[in-house]
C-alpha cells in the first residue's frame, strides 16, 4: 500500500518434502520442523520504487508487543532493513507495521570496538548475509568492522542480547534513543541503562513515551551520554536526541549479555515486563522461543510440496501471526492493562494495534477467526476499548487513529468475528454494534475514520466523485460494510427496520455500475457518470487501482453483479479480460505520477490482475459464481507459482500486515473467504498433497490431494467426509466440527463439476 500508507511441550514430527523428479514422481529430500522453513527475509528486497513485500525481519513472538530488527536504514527511514544493504547501524526495537506508516517507540542498541564511534553513520559496520542467521525467534550477525557477533532472542515484551567481543580495551555498547525527544540515564551500580523515546510517525497522544530498561552482566568502565553529536560524561541526558555509551575491557570471545524490556506505561512496568525472561539464560530463552513458534506454526501441517512451496507457506504463515500486535501489558495484579493510544490514559483491558482494515478484513481476520477465535475475541475487546477511548473504531491504527485508506471496514472485522465465534465469547458485542452504527452514519475527525461523504452516500446511494475523492472505492466498500452490519443486526435480533435499512444500503454498489463498460464508473452529485473516464486510469475515483481492479468489490453479492453484466458468459468474459488485457496504466493528478503498485502490476505480466495490491486479490475466485470453477483453479495455482517464493523478493507487492500472506495460506489450503461476513469459503484448489489443520476447539480438518503436482491443478472430484461434494463453497461452521476433504486432482479441467445452480456460493441476491 502507498500510505499518503508460550515450558511448551512440542510433539516432534517430520515434514516430508517432495521435489518433482519427472512428470508425477517425487522423492523425500529432507525433513524439517515448521519454524525451520520460515525465512523472515522474504520480502526484504524492496525499496521505495518497487515492493517485493516491503517487510523487515521481525525477530519477535507471535503478535508480540515489541519486535526487533537489524537496522540498515537511517534513523527515521521506513525502510529500516533492506536486503541489498551491506552495513548495519544498530539493532532496533520496532513497532513499524509498514514503511509507509513508519515507526514509533523505537530505539537501538549497537556494539562498537576500537575508537569510540557513537554517531549512526560512523558506528555502522559491514555485514554479509553469509554471516547472518535469521529465524523468527533468533537473530545473529557478525559485524565485521567491530569483530563482534550480535545475537538477539525475544519474548513478547522483552529480549536478551548476547555480544561476543574480541580481546580489546575498547569495547562499547551504544544505546540510541533517537531524536524527536528522548532521555537516557546510566546507573553503573546496577549495570543498568533506563530511558525513553518519543519518536513516532503520528497516531499518538501528546504524553506518548516508550520507556525502556537494559540490564547488563558486566560492570561498566566507561559511562557517557550524548546529546545529538556531542558526547559528554554526564550519567543522565534529556534532549531532542539523547543516547548512552558504556564501555569495558573484554577478553577474546567474551560474551556480554543484556536483558532489555520496554513499556508504554512506565519504568516500573518495563521492569515488570523484563520478568518475562525469568531465570532463563540466552540459549534457554532461545529454545523457548523456538518452541512457541513451532507450536503455532504446527497448527497447520503441510506435506507434499517442493522446498520453495514449503518455505513460502511457512514464511507466509509466520507473517500471518505478527499483526495486529499486542499493545497491552500485564500489571501488578497480572491482569491486562494498556496505555491508550487514543486518550493517553492507562486503562484496564486489551488493546491491539498496527493493522489497516482496508487490507486485513479480506483474509487475515478470517484466518484469525478460523484458527485463533479466542485471540480474536481479545482483539474485539480491544476494539471496544478503542471505541470507548476515542469515540470511533480505528480503520488504521498505528498505534492510534491514522488518516490512511478508505472504507469503513471495522464493520466487517466486528461482524465477522461475532458471526463466526462471538456467541461463545464474553466481549461487549452491544457496545461494538453501537460503534459500527456510529461509524456507518458519521464522518469522523479524520477522513479515514467513520465515513467520508456519508451524507451523500445515505441520501444518493453513492459517494459523489465531485464531493469526495476515491468516491467509487468508498461507495463499493461502504456497501459491503453495510452488508456486514446487516448480517450482525440479524444475528443480534435488532429491529426489522434497522435490518432492512442496511440490507438496502448494501445494494448501493449498483448505483455505480455502467453497462457501457460493464464496469464500475464514478458518478457526480448530479447523478451523471464522471467524464472523461478511462477504466485503466488509477485513482480516478478508486484507491490504489482502477476500475478493472475495483469493479469486483461486491464481495457479498456477486450474483447481483453477474446480473448487472448480463449473465454468466458476459461475466466470465469480463473476468477473462482482466488477464488478457495489457498491463497498461494511466496516471492521474491524484497520484502525481507512477506509484510502485503500477509498476508491480506491469512487470508481473498478468494483465490487469494486480495481485500485489488488495482490491483484486479475491477476483480469481469469482469464476466459481458463474459456473466455471476450473478457471479459478488454474489462476489460483498460477498466482501462487508466479507471485510467491521463499526468497527476499518473494512477494509481488506490499505484504501488508499479513493480508497478502493470508491469501497464500488460504489458497494453499484450497479455499478462500470471498465474503468474510458470511459462513462460506469459496473453493479453489489445494497446493499440497496433504494438510492437517488443528483447530482451537480440538477438532481437525484434513485435506488430502495425493495426486497433486505442478500439472495437476484442477479439481476432478471432491469428497467431504467421504461423500461426493459438488458445491463451490465450504461452510465455516461445518469445518469447525472437523472434516475430511478429499480432492481428486487432474491435469485437465472437469467442465461439469460445480456448474449447477445449487453449487454456486452465497450472494445476497439469492437470499
UniProtKB/TrEMBL annotation:
Cofactor requirement: Ca(2+)
InterPro entries (alphabetical): 6-hairpin_glycosidase_sf (IPR008928), GH-type_carb-bd (IPR014718), GH92_a_mannosidase_put (IPR005887), GH92_N (IPR041371), Glyco_hydro_92 (IPR012939), PNGase (IPR050883)
Ranges where the Glycosyl hydrolase family 92 N-terminal domain occurs: 37-263
Keywords, ordered alphabetically: Calcium, Signal
Signal peptide segment: 1-23
A family per Pfam: Glyco_hydro_92
Domain of life: Bacteria
Every Glycosyl hydrolase family domain range: 269-746
NCBIfam families, alphabetized: aman2_put (TIGR01180)
Protein name: Glycosyl hydrolase family 92 domain-containing protein
UniProt source species: Flavobacterium bizetiae
Amino acid at each position: 500500500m502507498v500510505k499518503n500508507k508460550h515450558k511448551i511441550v512440542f510433539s516432534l514430527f517430520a515434514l516430508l518434502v517432495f521435489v518433482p523428479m519427472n512428470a508425477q514422481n517425487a522423492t523425500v529430500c529432507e525433513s524439517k520442523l515448521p519454524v525451520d522453513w520460515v525465512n523472515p527475509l522474504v520480502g526484504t528486497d524492496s525499496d521505495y520504487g518497487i515492493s517485493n513485500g516491503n517487510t523487515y525481519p521481525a525477530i519477535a513472538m507471535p503478535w508480540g508487543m515489541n519486535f526487533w530488527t537489524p537496522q540498515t536504514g537511517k534513523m527515521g527511514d521506513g525502510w529500516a532493513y533492506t536486503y541489498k544493504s551491506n552495513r548495519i547501524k544498530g539493532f532496533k526495537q520496532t513497532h513499524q507495521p509498514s514503511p509507509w506508516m513508519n515507526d514509533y517507540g523505537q530505539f537501538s542498541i549497537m556494539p562498537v570496538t576500537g575508537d569510540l564511534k557513537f554517531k549512526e553513520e560512523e558506528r555502522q559496520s559491514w555485514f554479509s548475509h553469509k554471516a547472518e542467521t535469521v529465524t523468527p525467534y533468533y537473530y545473529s550477525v557478525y559485524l565485521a568492522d567491530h569483530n563482534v557477533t550480535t545475537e538477539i532472542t525475544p519474548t513478547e515484551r522483552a529480549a536478551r542480547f548476547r555480544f561476543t567481543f574480541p580481546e580489546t580495551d575498547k569495547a562499547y555498547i551504544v544505546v540510541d534513543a533517537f531524536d524527536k525527544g528522548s532521555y537516557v540515564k546510566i546507573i553503573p551500580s546496577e549495570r543498568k541503562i533506563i530511558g525513553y523515546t518519543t519518536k513516532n510517525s503520528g497516531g499518538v497522544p501528546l504524553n506518548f513515551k516508550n520507556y525502556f530498561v537494559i540490564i547488563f552482566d558486566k560492570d561498566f568502565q566507561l559511562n557517557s551520554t550524548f546529546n545529538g553529536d556531542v558526547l559528554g560524561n554526564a550519567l543522565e541526558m534529556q534532549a531532542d536526541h539523547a543516547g548512552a555509551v558504556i564501555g569495558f575491557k573484554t577478553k577474546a570471545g567474551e560474551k556480554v549479555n543484556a536483558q532489555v524490556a520496554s513499556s508504554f506505561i512506565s519504568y516500573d512496568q518495563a521492569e515488570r515486563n523484563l520478568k518475562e525472561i525469568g531465570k532463563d539464560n540466552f540459549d534457554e530463552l532461545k529454545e523457548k522461543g523456538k518452541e512457541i513458534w513451532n507450536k503455532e506454526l504446527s497448527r497447520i501441517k503441510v506435506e507434499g510440496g517442493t522446498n520453495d512451496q514449503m518455505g513460502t507457506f511457512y514464511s507466509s504463515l509466520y507473517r500471518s501471526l505478527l499483526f495486529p500486535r499486542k499493545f497491552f501489558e500485564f500489571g501488578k495484579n497480572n491482569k491486562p492493562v494498556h496505555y491508550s493510544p487514543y486518550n493517553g490514559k492507562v486503562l484496564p483491558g486489551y488493546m491491539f494495534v498496527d493493522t489497516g482494515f482496508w487490507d486485513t478484513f479480506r483474509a487475515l481476520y478470517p484466518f484469525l477467526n478460523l484458527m485463533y477465535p479466542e485471540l480474536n475475541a481479545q482483539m474485539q475487546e480491544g476494539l471496544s476499548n478503542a471505541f470507548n477511548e476515542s469515540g470511533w473504531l480505528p480503520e488504521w491504527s498505528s498505534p492510534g487513529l491514522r488518516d490512511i485508506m478508505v472504507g469503513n471496514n471495522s464493520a466487517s472485522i466486528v461482524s465477522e468475528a461475532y458471526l463466526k465465534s462471538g456467541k461463545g465469547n464474553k466481549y461487549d458485542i452491544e457496545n461494538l454494534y453501537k460503534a459500527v452504527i456510529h461509524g456507518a452514519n458519521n464522518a469522523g475527525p479524520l477522513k479515514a475514520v467513520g465515513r467520508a461523504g456519508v451524507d451523500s452516500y445515505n441520501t444518493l446511494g453513492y459517494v459523489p466523485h465531485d464531493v469526495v475523492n476515491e468516491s467509487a472505492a468508498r461507495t463499493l466498500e461502504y456497501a459491503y460494510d453495510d452488508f456486514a452490519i446487516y448480517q450482525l443486526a440479524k444475528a443480534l435480533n435488532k429491529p426489522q427496520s434497522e435490518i432492512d435499512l442496511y440490507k438496502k444500503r448494501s445494494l448501493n454498489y449498483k448505483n455505480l455500475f455502467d453497462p457501457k463498460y460493464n464496469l464500475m464508473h464514478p458518478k457526480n452529485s448530479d447523478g451523471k457518470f464522471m467524464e472523461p473516464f478511462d477504466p485503466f486510469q488509477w485513482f480516478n475515483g478508486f484507491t490504489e487501482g482502477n476500475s478493472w481492479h475495483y469493479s469486483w468489490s461486491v464481495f457479498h453479492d456477486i450474483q447481483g453483479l453477474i446480473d448487472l453484466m448480463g449473465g454468466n458468459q458476459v461475466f466470465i468474459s469480463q473476468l477473462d479480460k482482466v488477464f488478457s488485457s495489457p498491463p497498461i496504466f494511466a496516471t492521474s493528478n491524484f497520484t502525481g505520477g507512477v506509484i510502485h503498485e503500477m509498476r508491480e502490476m506491469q512487470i508481473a505480466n498478468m494483465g490487469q490482475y494486480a495481485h500485489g495490491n488488495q482490491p483484486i486479490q479475491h477476483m480469481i475466485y469469482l469464476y466459481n459464481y458463474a459456473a466455471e470453477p476450473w478457471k479459478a483453479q488454474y489462476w489460483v495455482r498460477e498466482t501462487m507459482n508466479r507471485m510467491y517464493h521463499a526468497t527476499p523478493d518473494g512477494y509481488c507487492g506490499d505484504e501488508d500486515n499479513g493480508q497478502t500472506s493470508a491469501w497464500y495460506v488460504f489458497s494453499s489450503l484450497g479455499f478462500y473467504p470471498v465474503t468474510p461476513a458470511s459462513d462460506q469459503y469459496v473453493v479453489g484448489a489445494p497446493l499440497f498433497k496433504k494438510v492437517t489443520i488443528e483447530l482451537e476447539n480440538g477438532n481437525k480438518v484434513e485435506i488430502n490431494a495425493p495426486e497433486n503436482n505442478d500439472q495437476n491443478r484442477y479439481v476432478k472430484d471432491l469428497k467431504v467426509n467421504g461423500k461426493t461434494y459438488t458445491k463451490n463453497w465450504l461452510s465455516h461452521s461445518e469445518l469447525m466440527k472437523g472434516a475430511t476433504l478429499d480432492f481428486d486432482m487432474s491435469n485437465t479441467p472437469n467442465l461439469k463439476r460445480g456448474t449447477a445452480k445449487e453449487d454456486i456460493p452465497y450472494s445476497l441476491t439469492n437470499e
